[in-house]
């Protein structure tokens, strides 16, 4: 049966890194609500004005809007064989909506937690840099680009740092995760749909376990 793979984890845990590998290797689309919201914020629209302060401060976007964005994106033909959700659901309301969506679309749902201790999350967030062209994810401490602040694949492009990747906002984002999102782990665990992966290792070791969890090994 086709699957929705829900990648879960605290901010900076490595969901995006693993989702990009799954996308590349399993040919399923990666749907990152954070990436979609950051794209909206770059536009000159009233919606961008509304979302910009929320993203900058690491506060959650209202459920109704978030669910609409996910519903529209997952209705695209490339999602018919399943997809990877990165950063959704984050609240009980979003999880409830996703159950309905999975049933309508005929997909099973599996949640995979990338579990990382809090003491390493801050460096993962504050050290993160992204290529604005291809989205490649770097880290000045753990995965630096070959040349300082420049993408390996797009040497003409300077890497960017996210507005919410500073130490203070990082703490608030972790607190939001604890309050609003952690309860969902228990929700998926109780229904036997949660797999936990140790996310404090190197990227490929984590991927091997994520891939096993996804294929039911
Ligand atoms: P979002 O973009 O989803 O941010 P997040 O959940 O805070 O997660 P991150 O993107 O920070 O981290 P990640 O786990 O993807 O880690 P990554 O792979 O990049 O959301 C941003 C904002 O959008 C939210 O605050 C909210 O405002 C809004 N939003 C989004 N979804 C929403 C929703 N559903 N409802 C409401 N609002 C929503 O890795 C991090 C760093 O670590 C990188 O530098 C990477 O190179 C490095 N790294 C990764 N893996 C390893 C490893 N194994 N070893 C060493 N370094 C590693």
Give an overview of the whole structure.
- The longest helix is centred in the C-terminal third of the chain and has 24 residues, at 167-190.
- The protein has a domain at 3-116 and 194-215: Rossmann fold.
- It is globular and about 45 Å long.
- The mean pLDDT is 96.
- Strands 2-3-1-4-7 form a five-stranded parallel beta sheet, with helices on both faces.
- It has helices at 15-26, 33-41, 46-57, 63-74, 92-105, 118-126, 167-190, 203-215, and strands spanning 3-8, 30-32, 82-86, 108-115, 128-130, 137-139, 194-198.
- By secondary structure, the chain is of the alpha/beta class.
- It is built from eight helices and seven strands.
- A hairpin with a 6-residue loop joins strand 5 (128-130) and strand 6.
- Helix 1 (15-26) packs across helix 8 and helix 2 (33-41) crosses helix 3.
- It binds BIS(adenosine)-5'-pentaphosphate.
- BIS(adenosine)-5'-pentaphosphate is lined by residues 9, 11-17, 33-34, 37, 54-55, 58-61, 66, 87-88, 90, 94, 124-125, 127-128, 137-139, 142-143, 164, 173, 202-203, 206.
Mean pLDDT, as a whole number?
A: 96
Beta-strand content bin: 15-25%
Q: In DSSP terms, counting alpha (H) and pi (I) runs of 4 or more, how many helices?
A: 8
- CATH-assigned homologous superfamily of the domain at 3-116 and 194-215: P-loop containing nucleotide triphosphate hydrolases
Rounded to the nearest angstrom, the distance between the terminal CA atoms is: 15 Å
Q: Can you tell me the CATH class of the domain at 3-116 and 194-215?
A: Alpha Beta
Q: Please summarize the sheet with the most strands.
A: 5 strands, parallel
Structural class, judged by helices and strands? Answer: alpha/beta
Q: Biggest sheet, strands in spatial order?
A: 2-3-1-4-7
Helicity level: 40-55%
CATH architecture of the domain at 3-116 and 194-215: 3-Layer(aba) Sandwich
């Amino acid at each position: 049966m086709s699957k929705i793979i829900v990648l879960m984890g605290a901010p900076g845990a490595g969901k995006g890194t693993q989702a990009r590998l799954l996308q590349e290797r399993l040919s399923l689309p990666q749907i990152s609500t954070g990436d979609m919201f950051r794209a909206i914020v770059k536009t000159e629209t009233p919606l961008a004005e509304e979302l910009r302060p929320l993203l900058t401060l690491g506060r959650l976007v209202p459920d109704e809007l978030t669910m609409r964005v996910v519903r529209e994106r997952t209705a695209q033909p490339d999602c018919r064989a399943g997809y990877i959700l990165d950063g959704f659901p984050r609240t009980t309301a979003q999880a409830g909506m996703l159950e309905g969506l999975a049933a309508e679309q005929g997909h099973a749902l599996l949640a995979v937690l990338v579990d990382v201790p809090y003491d390493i999350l801050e460096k993962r967030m504050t050290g993160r840099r992204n290529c604005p062209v291809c989205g490649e994810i770097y880290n000045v401490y753990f995965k630096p680009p070959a040349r300082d602040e420049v993408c390996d694949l797009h040497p003409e492009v300077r890497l960017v740092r996210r507005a919410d990747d500073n130490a203070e906002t990082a703490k608030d984002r972790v607190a939001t995760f604890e309050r609003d999102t952690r309860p969902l782990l228990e929700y998926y665990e109780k229904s036997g749909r949660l797999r936990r992966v140790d996310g404090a290792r190197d990227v490929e070791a984590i991927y091997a376990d994520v891939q096993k969890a996804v294929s039911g090994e």
